[in-house]
Amino acid sequence: MPPKSLDLFLRTKAGLSTTINKWERLAVASEKLRDQVICGEYFISEAAKWELTETLISEPCTDSVGQDDFYFVSLLINAGSTRTLEHDLGEGRFRRPPRPGSMIFGYEPRALLSQGGGPLHSIGIYIPAQLLQSRFAELWGKEMPSPDKLLSSHFLDSGLEVLIKRLNFECRQSRSPEKSLTIEPFFDAILDRLFLIAGRKLPEIKPNDRLRPDAVTRAIEFIDAHFHQELRLDEIAQVAGVSRCHFSRLFRQTMGQSLKQYLVEIRLNKAQEILEFGASDLTVGQIAQRCGFCDRQHLIREFRRKYGVTPDLFRRFL
């Protein structure tokens, strides 16, 4: 693991407790799965019986934490490896980039595969199937979307990411059962956001329209290595070995966002890392230049859009 990644995960480990050991579902899981959990936090809602975990694991594991009737959503906070993750949640195998913010949604009894590099720091929410389905019916009635639409690929959604992180923060602040009712509104907002994502009209993808996994891997590795430079669609498509038009369309279908959106997210993540752990004497303009933004104002605009504050304010209150 690179030194920066190792330092990041040591910090993560130091910030987590071992309350995950109180999780009944983990206690009855396979020994292999239990051994891969390094540390973590655990919370259960006394009101609705949904569960939340924040874990640091050595690597993904196909073994589930039980065959109970639960749906789950998992948000990747950080990964210590650049190796692409692979999942099969019951609707076919798909690849997932090891990038912060990547999410998967699954149904415990149908989850078949989870593998790739580690360690991984993630937040997971486990939702009783009856609770989720009744909430879907309440909002959508007879025309409710099926949550199974989310089982076939990873996805990105800044709104959902922020809500999950906020819920996790509130749970860590409120350990007493009598305080759990104050947390439920955040959980409800997460369900509402999931419904919107599941209800989106997804484009039809023909079997021969899928971008080959090796093409995606080559493109992502190239982008991650050259994000600080001015990148053109032509050269990235050439690295992937497909035409410009074909690559642009399939990249969006595979990654859930356009190439431009992905590149901006990569650059914002790097800017955030510099603001948190880099030299404090770097100006916002210098950070913008190092991360591949056009200028200082471009970084400020995109940073505020994602985090709600300017880079200077973000650094000042860390």
UniProtKB/TrEMBL annotation:
InterPro entries xref list: AraC_XylS_family_regulators (IPR050204), Homeodomain-like_sf (IPR009057), HTH_AraC (IPR018060), HTH_AraC-typ_CS (IPR018062)
Protein name: Probable transcriptional regulator
Alphabetical keyword list: DNA-binding, Transcription, Transcription regulation
Gene Ontology MF terms in the entry: DNA-binding transcription factor activity; sequence-specific DNA binding
Keyword DNA-binding (UniProt): yes
SUPFAM superfamilies documented for this protein: Homeodomain-like
Ranges of residues in domain HTH araC/xylS-type: 217-317
Listed Pfam families: HTH_18
Origin: domain of life: Bacteria
Keyword Transcription: yes
